[in-house]
Every structure is written in C-alpha cells, then in structure tokens.
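The freezer alarm interrupted the setup, so I double-checked each line after restarting. Inputs confirmed:
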Amino acid sequence: MEEIRDVVLEYVIEEYLEDEDEEINYETPLISGGIVDSFSMVSLKRFLEAQYKISIPDEKASPEAFDTVNSITALVREFIG
Amino acid sequence: MSFNEKIRAMYVEQIEGIKDAGIFKQERFIHSAQAADIEVEFPAGSSLKKAINMCANNYLGLSSHPEVVKAAHEGLDTRGYGMSSVRFICGTQDIHQELERKVTEFLGTEDTILFPSCMDANAGVFEAILTDEDIMISDRLVHASIIDGIRLCSAMHDTFKHSNMIHLEKKLQLHADKRLKVVITDGVFSMDGDTAKLDEMVALCEKYDAMLFVDDSHATGFIGKTGRGTHEKCGVFGKIDIITTTFGKALGGASGGCVSGRKELVEMCRQKARPYLFSNTIAPVVVSGVLKVLDILFESTERRDKLEKNTAYWRKGLTEAGFVLKDGDTPIVPVMLFNAKLSQNISNDLYDEGIYAIGFFFPVVAKGQARIRTQISAGHEIHHLDKALSAFTKVGKKYDILGKTKQEIIEMYGL
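Predicted 3D structure, all chains:
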C-alpha cells in the first residue's frame, strides 16, 4: 500500500508540477485544487493501468476518485484485488 | 420564456463578478485603418488620440497595403460581395480553388482546404480525421482553439510539458498501442513568442509512427528565411502532416484560415469537418486579398526581412533599457511585469504617451506571469520603434523597474 502511494505521488509530481509549484502530499486536492485538470487525468489513468496491469473502467475514473493521491491509491488497490 | 428580471439579475451578477475579478475586457475603438499609426477612441466617448500600434498581428504590415486593398476591390467587382452558401452547395468559386492551390505551394504541403477562420480549422480537423481508437498528444501551451477542437473529438487526449521532448517521448511510449497518434503543437506560441522544436518533434514522430500537427498562425508569412513558417525555420519543410494557419494575421489580417497537409487528411476534412460543412464560404473579397498577399510574398522576402530587422532592433532597445523580456527571436516580444495590476498601469501610461500596447494577465497567461505583449510589424519604421522605446523607458523609470531582475520586480510589486 505504501509503495503504491509513493509511486502515485512521485508520478503526479513529475507529471503535473512545474519547478516553481508548491509541494504536494497524499491529501492535497489535485483536481478540485487546480493542480491536475480533468483533461489530463487520462495520462494518470493510463499510467496506473500500465504500471499495475489493471483496467480501470471509465465510470470509476471520476474526478472525485482521482482527487488525492490517497483516493487514487484506494482505487488502484480495488482493482489489484 | 421571457428574459425576466430574475434572469437579468443573474447575468448582471455574473458580469459584476468578471469585473470584480479584474478580468473584464473592454474594447478600444479604432477609427482608422489597421496600421502602425492608428487613431483610437478610448475610453469610449473621448476624443480621438493618435497612437503607435504595438500589439497587432499585422506582422507584415499588409493589412492596409494598397495592392491588397486594390485586389480586394477587384474581387468585389468581379466575384461579388457574398456567396450565400457553404462551399459544397454553391459556395466554391474559381478563386477559392486558386487560393487552396497557392497556399499548398507556399506551405510545401500536398493539399489545402479553406475554413472561415483558423479557429474553425482547429475546431474541425481532429474530429474529421480521428476516432476513439486514436490518441492526441498536445503541448500544454497550445492555443485555446486547439483545445476546443480536441474537446470535440472522441479520440483520447493527453498532454506533454511545454516544449519538453523527453516528456513527449514518454507519452509516445505510453500510448504506443493506439491506432493513430497525433502530436499537436503551435509553431510559434502566441503568448511567449517561442518556437516549437519541430526538428526534434519530426524525429520523434518518425520514430514512434505518429503524425505531427502544427498551428502556424503566428509564423506563416514571416518565420523561416522565405517566410514559409516554423517548419522552414526548423529545416523540416515538407515533413509536417497537418498545418493549420490563418489569413487573419500576417497574410492581410482580414479573416479565414485553412488546414493544409497530407491530401487524404485534407479530403477527410472536406467530407467531415463540421465548420467547413456548416459554415459559409470565405467571402470573395477576402480570397482576392489573400491571393494578392501570397503573390507579394512569392515575389520577395523584403517584408519579412524588414520585420526581422525591426524585431532585432526592438529587442535590443528594450534589453538595453533594462526590461525583462521573454527569450526568443520572433516578432512577439513579451515585456515581463509579473504583477497584473502593474501590467495594466503600465499599459495605461504607455497609452498616455501615444503607445498602444495591452497588458496580459491571468487567465490569459499563468498567474504571476503578467506582461505587455508587444508585436513588431514590417509596417513599423525605425522612428515608430524609437518613439515606443522612449515611452517604454519613461514609464519603466516611473515604476523603477529598469535594470531590475524578475525577483526584484516581484519583491516590489508582488505576484
């Protein structure tokens, strides 16, 4: 669990944050906080699917489910089984 | 349903909200033709003021060129005012075809289709050529019209960090399983004036079997040694799969745009692109004007050469005066002020000095990136640029920002 959480956090930092942006943590609101636009969620979803060999149905990939590193981790866990 | 008081109050509140946020846009009325010297009514109702225009997309100074105006008059006389039709019903004249042929030759592509605007070209092209089996990978700073076009298309969409080729390559690897991949970028980015790395992008697209899309609206006519665009400058002329561009900037500045590229993609647009199918043909008067513009550009590079010299002179002058500029060599020269209010104040003070240059701030540019975007034209003479430099210097001194670094300006005025 910890490992997934850190992989997701590292990906979000590398993918979405620019050099001058503030640091984020596991509970930082990503979509509602304007760090990730809902448009860019696709790359995160595809990354998770490739990384963990899972398939997340579109209806499960809601902005709410993708809003924090913790909620994303929970979603991944659900599909890893 | 009537537009009752409750509905009116709702909109009034929204408009007030825009004003409170400091992002209310106000038009300035120009009473002259578009040129380096213009006559402006601002604020509304005030007497006319002569000003030097430093913020038009009139890069080649052709918006009011006598030969272009004459050609437009002739087009009006021989082909009429309007066509009252979309292209495929009864809205295609011989001159529309001629313009498509000439644009194809100018851009070094296989075929071209005209659209009412480049906004329409960008809105229609992706939906016409892609399906939900495909992926669009766009630079994060592409123009708003491209974002609208992407939204209208069922293909998956992803982004890469601005001009970051390592990130782009990762995305091409991530989406390797998609049927078709299109990498999407502006040629010259309109807010920063920087140029896409098209040579590297072509190489990556070849490596990963992706198509390359370039919106060259801020480049066609003057970037590259014969003005053909960013692909010429980057040494990849003939290698771009889809170019969209506008006739509303350097190429006479009236209106209209196009999709130019691989002939099958252009044909798909002719069959399926909704802004082409459901919007009127470009007016004959405009087509005639653009044809003349292209004749002028085929004949000589004099105007783009002058623009290049003007741009170098302007950048050097502003740098020596001590302003912070965005790096680059295009005629888009952003003077960085970082603070939104400062950009508005300086714009107003410049106007008092007879210089028309607009402040840009969030949401047009990122927060803390407020600026005055100056745009140089071949229609500017050295005396225009000298007068503008002297006004910028005077106003810069007033706000004590000359010779100051980004950090120092932010410390003085905040973000």
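Quick read of the result. Chain B touches chain A at residues 156-159, 161, 171, 174-175 (CB under 8 Å).
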